[in-house]
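INPUT
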Amino acid sequence: MAEKAILLVDMESFYASVEKADHPELKNHPVIVSGDPERRSGVVLAACPLAKKRGVKNAYRLWEAQQLCPEAVVVRPRMQRYLDVAMEITDILEEFTDMVEPYSIDEQFMDVTGSQRLFGMPSEIAQKVKAAIKDRTGVNARCGIGPNKVLAKIACDHFSKKNDTGIFQLNQNNIKQCMWPLPVGAMFGVGSRMERHLRRLGISTIGRLANYPLDILKKKWGINGQVLWETANGIDHSPVSVSSHEGQKAIGHAMTLPRDYQNFEKEIKVILLELSEEVCSRARTSGVMGYTVSTGCQGANNDSPAGFYRQTTLVNPTNHTMDVFHEAKKLFLKFWDGQPVRRITVNLSHLCSDKVRQISFFDDYELRREIGYTMDRIKQRYGPDAIIRAISLTEAGQAADRAKKIGGHYK
Amino acid sequence: MQDVMNSNNHDTALAMKFSITKDKLVENVNHVMKAVSSKTTIPILTGIKITASHDGITLTGSNSDISIKSFIPLEENDEEYATIEKTGSVVLQARVFSDIVKKLPSEFVNIEVDSRLITRITSGSSEFNLNGLDAEEYPRLPLIEEGNVLHVRTDLLKHVIRQTGFAVSTSETRPVLTGVNWNIQNGNLNCVATDSHRLASRTISIDADENAEYKNIVIPGKSLNELSKILDDSSGEWVEIVITESQILFKTKHLQFYSRLLDGNYPDTNRLIPTESKTDIILSTKALLQAIDRASLLAKEERNNVVKFRTLEDSIEISSQSAELGRVFENVELQSLEGEELKISFSAKYMIDALSRIESQEIRISFTGAMRPFLIRPVEDEGILMLILPVRTY
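OUTPUT
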């Protein structure tokens, strides 16, 4: 089998770059994109390279960032605009190959194995892709190239982002010299906890992991141990899958509350219903139902973590808001310790298609199904706040406010 | 150590002593074990109660739903099973006792209990000393007054259980559906089970008082399943059935099986059964079963296990497809087809469950549309009826 050529295209300071492209007058100013300063979400979502040079980093508190770089222009996020630009970039990438997998809002994989006769070597394609994105959206892109997704990702994260060309290629010939000296925590798939475990085994670099006996890793972590070892050796079999959404395992929403909520009837219940509605609406849009409902909360005090996360499995799958809400409510009443709550999650998993449904003698699901889809259609046509549940208009409700946002930030 | 034991033995009187053939003991222990659960709130119920009386040995096992009493006579059909030296009773840890007796080396087992309830089990070269519990602390089984007794042949009862028990619900969301609903009227016993997606119903005539009438008797599906396992249908025996407010008792010559009844009203299932039909087909049970079974091979990944069904001129087509695996078409010849053309989708599992419980060679299936339940019945037999709700596709 011929070696594949995979590109990971990463957008530099994506939100900030879009803002700068849309506002040429900001070209030479440091720009920070930050959530609504009046609410808790006042953290740095993106900082342009000029601001980063001054030490501003993502997820810094806004006031911290402003101390480091007082003259920075602070812009509110416009999530819809970023989504639109990301889609535009997907369109650009699809001019080079039909195998494009959006990996996150600012990262996309492309398989250009079959495009080389048309567009040249992978590195040439990378240059053309970069130029096209810059030209048509004003965003600066970086490309990692590899024989598989993992190497393309590592090439991009650790080399393309740091060199002048913004392009780097990793393959079996140079992983020993380039990738192996990197600390093991830098490897894709190794989080802080796994890094601790590995370091305890004396594995401090990717190279050491690559040369560690495979059986021991397998014994310790099973299939995951093998995947880590393969990654370290530059082996990865996962394909670039065009529709990542089909393999979606769960649909979940979490909401960070503007203040502590403690009253179940008047406050928490409202949020559970709103989250259930969002989760189910998304499930309906994706054409899926779920068997498993999970919910949880986190307390206000980050130093002494409180809260829970529990799940329950239903006999029949659902994407009906009230079904999910009732299960979430039951779980909450059972496992919540009564302490103030600052963040609530509702999740629907174990998904299956909603195009087939076993009919029941005693339960008229038809009617409930229609209500959900009808509400969705109204929202699609007249906007997300065109129809909301009455209880969301009470003081605790967040639906009206969230209707103006994407991912917790203003559109 | 041996000395100490022996000296102690002098102080303790014999509380019970008998010997028994191993096979008979194992067989009966297995029966009562069906009722013993390790998860019980009453610790003594993790044990088996053993009672030796002048006419034989009784074993008892129980959990909150089922209690089973199994009797071993001293002799039967000129075969000697047990001899009693001293009558008495003891409760022994069920799991351990059952494992031990299965593995004992000789064909005879001696069991001897002293007044401290230390139980010595010897067989061939093997000796176990188990700590027993006081049988007085074992809960009494429900007292059932034998007013109205129904009689059903053992093999028929097992049949009825097999033909209905499979359709009970496995979910506790609606507890009453985890049972089989029995109604007795005019000398007929009707059994119905449904998990809300399919329904199985069987009616038999029974030997009972003409006036005996029982409604809404809901017996846990699990109880019936266990009962069916221990009933021996080769014996040609009859089962006596006694029903009370909260319990049902099944009695054979040597066996008493008590089950709790489920609370709550069983839904009226008569109204679910369609009375008219728009498409009627008659075909071979086996041919359809095998075709569905094969078609379901490609329908396994979806939980619903859906196959598509449509009528052709003088046959039906069953098909299924999986995006990843491929597709399958099956054709089954019809004996007859009356009424409208039909396309319908349903769960292969429900269909297989129903067909595999119909003995008749030919069945009639009556449809009243793609979104309505359809009825499966043996051509010649009105006593059995299977109802399946289709799968709706959007």
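end of record. The two ends of chain A are 46 Å apart (CA to CA).
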